[in-house]
Every structure is written in C-alpha cells, then in structure tokens.
Amino acid sequence: MAPSVPPSLKKIKVFLSRAEELDRDKGNPESRVVAYNLRQYGVLAGIPLAGTDPAAKACLGELLNDLEKEKAAMAVFSKEEHWKI
After folding, report:
1. Is the dihedral of CA 22, 28, 34, 40 positive or negative?
2. 6, 56 Cβ separation under 8 angstroms
3. In Å, what is the CA distance from 30 to each residue of 27, 54, 78?
4. What is d(CA 22, CA 29) in angstroms, rounded to the nearest whole number?
5. How many CA atoms are closer than 13 Å to the CA of 39, on its beta-carbon side?
C-alpha cells in the first residue's frame, strides 16, 4: 500500500512502516485510526524534507491519495472516539 520512500524522506519511513504494521492488525479497529494518523503525520513531516526532489513529491502525493481514500473509513469513529484513540 505504501509507495517506495526515496532517500530524502528517510526520516518518515519509520511512521509509514508502523502504519503498515498496524494495517495488518484486523482484530482491532482502533489500529486503523492510528495507522491513518501515522501516515498523516508522515506526510506533514515529509513536506519540508521533500524540497525540490520530484521523487519525494511523488511519494507524498501517493500518500495523500491513500489518505483521501481512507478518510471515508474514518467516518465510522466519532470525533470523541478519534481523540480517545
């Protein structure tokens, strides 16, 4: 699901790897929210790192597209539940 991370975005790879790990946890629905937030944080942290690197910008674009697709699934949780998690 995650795109290959270019060297300029090496610092966010840990967040994306953890999100992938949580995606495999099908028994705990809260894991999906945490994975979403990890990806979101990774994109936010990666924007200043990308600079003028086209591969990094493409990677962040793919991650943003994935987040948009996942956003609908996050509507299952209320705002209060989202903050509790």
Report:
1. positive
2. yes
3. 9, 34, 12
4. 10
5. 26
Six-digit token string for 19: 């999100």
Rounded CA-CA distance 83/16 in Å is 21
pTM to 2 decimal places:
0.84
pLDDT at 16: 95
Tokens (6 digits) for 11: 């610092």
Read off the pLDDT of residues 6-53 as tens digits, 9 standing for 90 and up.
999 999 999 999 999 999 988 887 888 899 999 999 999 999 999 899
Q: Residue 44 corresponds to which tokens in the numbers above?
A: 């936010």
Residue type, 10: K
Q: Given the structure tokens 């994975």, which residue do they identify? A: 35
CA distance 36 to 74: 8
